[in-house]
Amino acid sequence: MTVLRAVARPMLASIFAIQGYDTMSNPERVAARAERVVRPLAEGVPIVPDQTEEAVRLNGAIQFTAGSLLALGIWPRLSALAIAATLVPTTVAGHRFWEAENEQDRAQQRIQFLKNLAIFGG
User: Fold this and answer.
1) How many CA atoms lie within 13 A of 2 on its CB side?
2) Angle, alpha carbons 55-83-95 (nearest 5°)
3) What's the pLDDT band for 51 if we cut at 50, 70, 90?
4) pLDDT digits (tens, 9 = 90+) for 76-93
5) Measuring CA to CA, how many Å separate 97 from each of 21, 33, 101?
6) Would you say the C-alpha torsion 43, 113, 94, 61 has a positive or negative sign?
7) End-to-end CA distance of the chain
8) Are 74 and 91 in contact (CB under 8 A)?
9) Nearby residues of 48 by Cβ (< 8 Å), 6 or more positions away
10) What is the DSSP string of 21-61?
11) How confident is the model at residue 4 (pLDDT cuts 50, 70, 90)?
């Protein structure tokens, strides 16, 4: 493993471990924004809980676990795949820049959306 990979992997993984833990511990913080994404997912995907807070908690738990495993270099490809799978609904639910009322909020949400898109591509 190169030195760059040994350093970059934990740095990238840390945001998912930290935010995943926070979301898992406090799902009510983002549940309202997640509602419009959770409902259709729960109807189409049997493993997604139909209660929004439970779905958000599950998403956070997956991010925390996969981020921690990725940081430790354990099952890095599977961990990255799990993170990527959770990043799609997180981004669509949490960073709907096209619906923002004011320009400053729209710009901030667009930055977050594009950041997540870039991480997903990586």
Assistant:
1) 4
2) 65
3) very high
4) 999 999 999 999 988 988
5) 25, 12, 9
6) positive
7) 18
8) no
9) 38, 41, 42, 55, 58
10) HHHHH-THHHHHHHHHHHHHHHHH-TTS-SSHHHHHHHHHH
11) low
Q: What is the pLDDT of residues 103-112, one digit of tens each?
A: 999 999 999 9
d(CA 63, CA 57): 10
With b meaning 16 or more CB within 10 Å and e meaning fewer, what string describes 78-110?
A: ebbebbeebbebbbbbbbbeeeeeeeeeeeebe
**What's 122's DSSP letter?**
-
List Cα–Cα distances, 48 to 61, 67, 92, in angstroms. Answer: 13, 20, 16
Can you read off the two tokens belonging to residue 121? 């591509």
